[in-house]
Structure formats: structure tokens, C-alpha cells
Design the sequence.
């Protein structure tokens, strides 16, 4: 069987396990399902971060800004204007995408300068949220944010409902990422990575493409942030704009393989679940240290991440077989 | 004779084993859950409450020996709301009868909501935000609130006869609402109040303190924040030396830890405190509490331990009462806890419909020569107020 067909079959099998197997196995275990939801929340941001890095060629240290703006937009729309929660969640993504427009001037910057500029934007958004007390509740934040509704008897406000929502968001984000990568846009973006000047000469609107990737990445992160606000039912500026929403997704993407589409998802699930389910019970007050060591080891032994490492293995075995 | 003696021993042994057997059959093991920040930015306060909870469990095992035994399963929420929720869900899955713990209103909010969903009682002393009780969750209880801290600060400022007060406060929910409450009460009494808000990331308080010194010219500076904020404010004040008669704060200030770590900054500063330092106890329960604390942790208890102890002791008493009434397994614990009317180390505790303890009032202590002396109210004082006096 050809490689693309094999990959498609594997993806269908994994999605079947995710949509049917996981609910059947852990539907009754709120704790484990809650951890998987938290891991997928990080995975969603990790996919958006990797998309911006791979396709847009920009390293962001400020994705917490989009996460925070998305979560506050959705929470405020649902709480103060009575917008239905699912619509508010999508509008949260729109809000984050709109906020990314303010960052467009930073697109002329490269490398660490862009990373620092976007970090500064995140801080600005956090201060604005803190100061807009009548709308956002100020530093005190918002408690009892409306949860996801019951539709046709199925309660999306419960753990299982939340799992299905965030899983769908992450799958759609990854599929969109993959589709763009395979499109002519993706080809142009790849060419831009090699030499931006040359692609401009042949008529590729590089700034427009980079801006589009930034807006898309912000939209995905905003939707994930909005989901989290309605799932946790609580927000304050420190939490919504926490640097954790940037650092953990970056660690997850690098661990899983940020050059691949599904690497950030695998990385987020691996580092969060292994840390919480395996390391934390063994070492309650220092489990993050083991995770740090594991991340260092992964970077040293397989700089491309977990996904490329897993893919390499069968090739090696094949070679041995031929030998 | 030997045979009679052997029979007697046999009968006694049988009677004893029957009695022990009967006792064992009635005795129950209760597993309590505790979700606390043991790592992260709230680790220090979380650890303090954890120590108090451990003392309560140790004392309960002694007091109910032969009848019941108690264990506590603790999970670190890593100062994260999502991990607080996960901790509560794990504890619910492990079959705990109720949860004691929680620190920080932003973590307690979602964690207690998860407990409410699981039908578990959640009792705390770590979140004073009014919104927590306004939700009206039947399973949520707390033994302290903003009002108790505000009343103590207002009462002492009145006793000092302060005419002008500058309130320097952190822009968090609990600190803002406390500062605003003090402002309203003082303004209503004709006191001139200057309000100065600061952000959690503020590290240099000199510009703010300069404003207080040159613009407000107050009699008293009132601080509402946390440990690091107090240290920053007092350092700035020590440099700029505003002409005030006293510096007053609230929680996490009049503690043994602050007296030990910042003796030069703390001298004559006031803060809320239930206990003097070194601890002086006279009530039998308080003496036992202090001795058990010393035995377990080889140090004197502080106010965090005291709050952790009281909330857990009340919970354990309610668990036993509900068990004896046969309602524990039927979800009767919240009702049983709501019947509480107890004199505790922090005063009388009763719970209203929303689980708030409306009797809660705090005391004020003053750092004096490396000790914390209770100076307000008069009936709880163990020393006199050193006034006017500042650390510089």
C-alpha cells in the first residue's frame, strides 16, 4: 500500500479510537477525561503555534495573547450579551484574529525581534483586560462563565461533551494546517522560507501570506482559549494571559515534532498525560523536573521530535531486513 | 486451681476478643480529600494550610481512637485552576467523603464547582472573594471572609484616631474588594482616604510611596496585598520615610515567618493575626493543637495552620455526626455541616445558607521586638499598642 493511503488509514483508525474508544474507555472517569481535555487544549495552541512557525516562518512567544483575547471575547459575549456559547466560542476566535491585526506591523521583524514584539503585545492585551473592569471584571476576573449547552439531550457542558468539542477543534485545526501545507499557498510559503526575496521577485505576496498565517494561527488559538473559558467556567487576566499558554504548547510542539502536522498534538498528549498520570504520583513535588529532563533528552537525541523518531524506526528495520 | 485459672484466662481472652471484634465492626475509616497549592506561587500558604489539616487529622485520630480513624489524601494543584479541578475529580474518584483545602479565590472557584458537581462538600479558608459564596452552592463552606478582615482593620484605625489614611492595594479580586470596603467605611466616618492601586508585577513601590508621602500626607498607610507586596512597600517607605504614625496591613503580615525573615522592615507594623508569636494558648483544645503542631512539624503554629486545622476539625465533627445519623452515605453531610455552631480557635463558627461564616472577625497583631503581640480588640490583646511608631 502507498504511503499516503497508509497514512490516511492510520488517521481514520486514530480518529475512530479518539471519538469512540476514548469515550467508551474513560467516559466514566472524569479525572482522566479532564486531563485529556487539558492536554488537547494545549495541543490546539501547539498546532496553531507550529502552523505560524512552519508556514509563516515566525517564532512566537506571545500566543497567550490570542488565547486570552479569545477566552475573554467569548466569555464576555456569552455572559453580558447572552450570545449562545458555541457562537461565542467562534466569535472568540474572530476576536483573537482581529487582535492579531494590531500585530501586523511586527511582521517586518524577524527571528528574536518578532518573538519579543509579540510577547510585548501579549503583555499589552493583559493590561488592557485588567483595566477594562466594567467589561472584563478587572483583575478579579469572571466566575461562573456559561458552560456549553445541552443539545438533543447530550450535555456538552459535561466532561465528555467538552472532550468531543476540543477534540473536534484540534482535528479541524490540524486538517486545515495540512490542507494549507499541501496547497499552492503552502508551496509559496515553503519557497519563501528558502529565499523570501526570490519569491517576491516571482510575484509571491509574502507579507500577505505571512499576515494570513498570523491571523489563522490567532483564530485557532482564540477558539481554543474560548473553549477553555467555557469549560473551566472561570477567567482572570493572570490565568487567561499566563505565559504557560505559550511555553507549554511550544514544549509540546517541539517534543512531538513541530515540523509535522500531528507532532504538536502527540507531543501535548504525551507530555501532559505522562507528567500528570505517571510522574506526579511518583514525585508529587518535583515531577516537572523529570519532564524537563525528558524534553532535553528528546531535543538531544531526536531534534525533530517524537513523530519523526517514530517514523524513522520502520525504515531502519527495513534496512536491516534487506541486509 | 491451675485448671480454674486456665479457664478464667480462656474466658477472659474470648470476652476481650469479642469486645475488640465488636469494636472493630463499628469503627469506620474515613478518607478526606485535600486539594492545595504545594508548588507554584501559592506554595508557601498552601503548605501552611496543609500543616493545619494534618494536625486536625492527627488529633481526630487520637480523640476518636477505637471508634473511627481518619486519613487525608492530598493532591497538589500546582497553583493552577485546571489542575485544581483535576485534583478534585481525582479525589472524588478515589472515594473521599469531603474536601478540605484550597487557596486563592481563582482556584477555589472552579475547584469547588467540580466538588459541587461531584456532590462533595468543599470547605476552605483560602478564598475570601464574596463571589464564592454568592453562587449559593449547597456544598461550599468557608470559615472566613473579607468582612472579618475589613472589620479588624477599620476597628484598629478608628482606635488609633486616624484622620487621613492612604490605602495601597493590589488589584486582585479579594484585595480590591477589601480595600474598597475599608474605604467606604472610613469615608462614612469622616476619614479622608487616598486609594492607590498597584499591579501584581510591581516591584518598585517608590513612585507610589512618593505620591502617598507628598500628595496624601496621611496619618496611617494601610496595605492590602500579599507577602512580597508588603516587603516592597515597606522597603520603599523605609527609603522615602513618609511622616506617618503607623503602617497597617492584613493577611500574611503579622506572622512568625515575616518577623524572622524581615526583622528590620516589620518592627511596629500591624497585620491581622489570630495568634500572638510566640504562641500563648490557654484553652485545652488550643494547647493540644499547639503541642501536636510542634510534634509533627517541630515549630510553632501560625495563622494558616490554625485556619486549616479549624476547617478540618469542623468537617470531621460533621462527618461523624452525619455517620451516626445514618445520612453520610445519603448526601447528608452538607446539612450536617450547616448545623455547626462551634467555638473554635478562630472564634464562633456557624454557616449561613451560602456556607459563609458570618461570625468571623479577625484580630490585629503588631510586630514588637521579633514577636507578634495581639493589640486589637482589647479583650483578645496580650500586649499594648506601640503607637505612634514606624519601622524607619
Sequence:
Amino acid at each position: 500500500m502507498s504511503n499516503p493511503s497508509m497514512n490516511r488509514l492510520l488517521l481514520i483508525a486514530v480518529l475512530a479510537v479518539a471519538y469512540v474508544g476514548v469515550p467508551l474507555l474513560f467516559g466514566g472517569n472524569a479525572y482522566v477525561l479532564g486531563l485529556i481535555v487539558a492536554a488537547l487544549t494545549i495541543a490546539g495552541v501547539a498546532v496553531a503555534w507550529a502552523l505560524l512557525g512552519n508556514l509563516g516562518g515566525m517564532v512566537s512567544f506571545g500566543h497567550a495573547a490570542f488565547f486570552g483575547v479569545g477566552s475573554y471575547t467569548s466569555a464576555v459575549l456569552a455572559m453580558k450579551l447572552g450570545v449562545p456559547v458555541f457562537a461565542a466560542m467562534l466569535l472568540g476566535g474572530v476576536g483573537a484574529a482581529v487582535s492579531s491585526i494590531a500585530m501586523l506591523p511586527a511582521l517586518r521583524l524577524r527571528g528574536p525581534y518578532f518573538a519579543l514584539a509579540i510577547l510585548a503585545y501579549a503583555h499589552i492585551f493583559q493590561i488592557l483586560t485588567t483595566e477594562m473592569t466594567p467589561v472584563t471584571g478587572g483583575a478579579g476576573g469572571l466566575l461562573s462563565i456559561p458552560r456549553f449547552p445541552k443539545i438533543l439531550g447530550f450535555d456538552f457542558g459535561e466532561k465528555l461533551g467538552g472532550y468531543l468539542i476540543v477534540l473536534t477543534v484540534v482535528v479541524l485545526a490540524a486538517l486545515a494546517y495540512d490542507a494549507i501545507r499541501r496547497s499552492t499557498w503552502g508551496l509559496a510559503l515553503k519557497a519563501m522560507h528558502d529565499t523570501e526575496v526570490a519569491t517576491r521577485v516571482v510575484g509571491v505576496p509574502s507579507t500577505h501570506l505571512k499576515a494570513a498565517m498570523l491571523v489563522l494561527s490567532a483564530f485557532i488559538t482564540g477558539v481554543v482559549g474560548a473553549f477553555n473559558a467555557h469549560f473551566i467556567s472561570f477567567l482572570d487576566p493572570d490565568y487567561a494571559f499566563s505565559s504557560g499558554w505559550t511555553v507549554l504548547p511550544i514544549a509540546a510542539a517541539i517534543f512531538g515534532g513541530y515540523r509535522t502536522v500531528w507532532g504538536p498534538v502527540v507531543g501535548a498528549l504525551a507530555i501532559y498525560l505522562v507528567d500528570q498520570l505517571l510522574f506526579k504520583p511518583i514525585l508529587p513535588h518535583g515531577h516537572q523536573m523529570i519532564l524537563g529532563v525528558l524534553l532535553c533528552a528528546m531535543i538531544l537525541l531526536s531534534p525533530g521530535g517524537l513523530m519523526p523518531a517514530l517514523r524513522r524506526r520502520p525504515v531502519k528495520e527495513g534496512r536491516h531486513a534487506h541486509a | 486451681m491451675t485448671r480454674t485459672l486456665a479457664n478464667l484466662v480462656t474466658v477472659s481472652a474470648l470476652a476481650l476478643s469479642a469486645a475488640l471484634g465488636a469494636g472493630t465492626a463499628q469503627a469506620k475509616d474515613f478518607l478526606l480529600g485535600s486539594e492545595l497549592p504545594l508548588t507554584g506561587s501559592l506554595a508557601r500558604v498552601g503548605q501552611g494550610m496543609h500543616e493545619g489539616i494534618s494536625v486536625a487529622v492527627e488529633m481526630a485520630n487520637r480523640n476518636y481512637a477505637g471508634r473511627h480513624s481518619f486519613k487525608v489524601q492530598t493532591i497538589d494543584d500546582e497553583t493552577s485552576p485546571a489542575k485544581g479541578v483535576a485534583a478534585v475529580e481525582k479525589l472524588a474518584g478515589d472515594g473521599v467523603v469531603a474536601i478540605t483545602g484550597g487557596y486563592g479565590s481563582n482556584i477555589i472557584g472552579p475547584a469547588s464547582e467540580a466538588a459541587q458537581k461531584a456532590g462533595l462538600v468543599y470547605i476552605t479558608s483560602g478564598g475570601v472573594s464574596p463571589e464564592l459564596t454568592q453562587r449559593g452552592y449547597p456544598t461550599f463552606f468557608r470559615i472566613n471572609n473579607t468582612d472579618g478582615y475589613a472589620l479588624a482593620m477599620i476597628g484598629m484605625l478608628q482606635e488609633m484616631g486616624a484622620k487621613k489614611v492612604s490605602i495601597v492595594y493590589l488589584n486582585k479580586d479579594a484585595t480590591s474588594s477589601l480595600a474598597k470596603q475599608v474605604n467606604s467605611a472610613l469615608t462614612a466616618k469622616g476619614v479622608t482616604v487616598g486609594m492607590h492601586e498597584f499591579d501584581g508585577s510591581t516591584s518598585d513601590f517608590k513612585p507610589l510611596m512618593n505620591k502617598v508621602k507628598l500628595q496624601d500626607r496621611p496619618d496611617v498607610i494601610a496595605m492590602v496585598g500579599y507577602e512580597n507586596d508588603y516587603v516592597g512597600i515597606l522597603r520603599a517607605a523605609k527609603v522615602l520615610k513618609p511622616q506617618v504614625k503607623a503602617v497597617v496591613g492584613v493577611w500574611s503580615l503579622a506572622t512568625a515567618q515575616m518577623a524572622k525573615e524581615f526583622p528590620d522592615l516589620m518592627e511596629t507594623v500591624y497585620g491581622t493575626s489570630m495568634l500572638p508569636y510566640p504562641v500563648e494558648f490557654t484553652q485545652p483544645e488550643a494547647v493540644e493543637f499547639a503541642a501536636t503542631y510542634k510534634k509533627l512539624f517541630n515549630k510553632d503554629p501560625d495563622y494558616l495552620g490554625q485556619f486549616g486545622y479549624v476547617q478540618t476539625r469542623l468537617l470531621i465533627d460533621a462527618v461523624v455526626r452525619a455517620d451516626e445519623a445514618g445520612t453520610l452515605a445519603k448526601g447528608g453531610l452538607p446539612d450536617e455541616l450547616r448545623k455547626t455552631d462551634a467555638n473554635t480557635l478562630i472564634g464562633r463558627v456557624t454557616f449561613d445558607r451560602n456556607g459563609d461564616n458570618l461570625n468571623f472577625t479577625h484580630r490585629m497583631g503588631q510586630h514588637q521586638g521579633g514577636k507578634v503581640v495581639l493589640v486589637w480588640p482589647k479583650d483578645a490583646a496580650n500586649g499594648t499598642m506601640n503607637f505612634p511608631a514606624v519601622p524607619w
About this structure: The longest strand of chain B covers residues 28-36. Confidence is low (pLDDT under 50) at residues 13-25 of chain B. Residues 52 and 308 of chain B are 4 Å apart (CA to CA).
